Amino acid sequence: MSNWRMIDFSALGDERGSLIALESHKNIPFLIRRVYYIYDTKIGVSRGFHAHRDLEQVAVCVSGECTFFLDDGHQREEILLDSPIKGLYLGSMVWREMSNFSHNCVLMVLASRHYDELDYIRNYEDFLRDIK
Ligand code: TYD
User: Fold this and answer.
1) How far is Cα 45 from Cα 84, in angstroms, rounded to an integer?
2) Which of 28, 30, 31, 24 is closest to 8 using CA atoms?
3) Is the minimum distance from the CB of 39 to ligand 1 under 6 angstroms?
4) Is the CB of 29 under 6 A from ligand 1?
5) Candidate from 35, 36, 88, 109 with most ligand 1 atoms within 8 A of CB, to mutate
6) What band does 96 get if pLDDT is binned at 50, 70 and 90?
7) Cα of 120 to ligand 1 centre, how many Å?
8) Inter-residue contact 98 to 25 (CB < 8 Å)
9) Closest CA to 55 of 127, 128, 111
10) Structural domain tally of the chain?
11) Nearest CA, atom 21, ligand 1
């Protein structure tokens, strides 16, 4: 079984519009310690190209769309994130590459840990060696 999955959020909607609330250990399966977002990504740019040793994340495209390419060394999957009601849970040791950012894409990421460069595996050969 892969260490990623989609999470469907419940939108609280009324005649004024929609609202989604994200809460640690409720619809987000870890304690949220960090939030960052990627926006204004230039046409044709790909990002990511790394895995994390321990970090868990949930990625939400709150505006626009982008594509995640995921790889755990055994399975690979391409996932289109194109809705604010969909979250992509990424567990540890998942190689990710993001591409096809639309001009209006705002990719918000909730993370289980503070930023730590030592948690990154940025070389694909190292990643394949470490998951063995
Ligand atoms: P980077 O890991 O290259 O982003 P991506 O995974 O989208 O390719 O991060 C870009 C820069 O931002 C890099 O210098 C590290 C820094 N950064 C932080 O300082 N804090 C953070 O929470 C993140 C995600 C990145």
Assistant:
1) 22
2) 28
3) no
4) no
5) 36
6) very high
7) 10
8) no
9) 111
10) 1
11) 115
Structure tokens at 102: 């639309």
Residue 1 has pLDDT above 90, yes or no: no
SS (H, E, C) 22-60: CCECCCECCCCCEEEEEECCCCCCCEEEEEECCCCEEEE
Confirm if 12 and 4 have CB atoms less than 8 A apart: no
Protein residue with least CA distance to atom 16, ligand 1: 115
Residue entry with tokens 């909730």? 110
Residue 83 domain boundaries? 4-131
For 110-126, the pLDDT digits (tens) are: 999 999 999 999 999 99
Residues designated catalytic? 50
38 lines ligand 1 (CB under 6 A): yes
CATH of the domain at 54: 2.60.120.10
Residue 85 contacts residue 19 (beta carbons within 8 Å): no
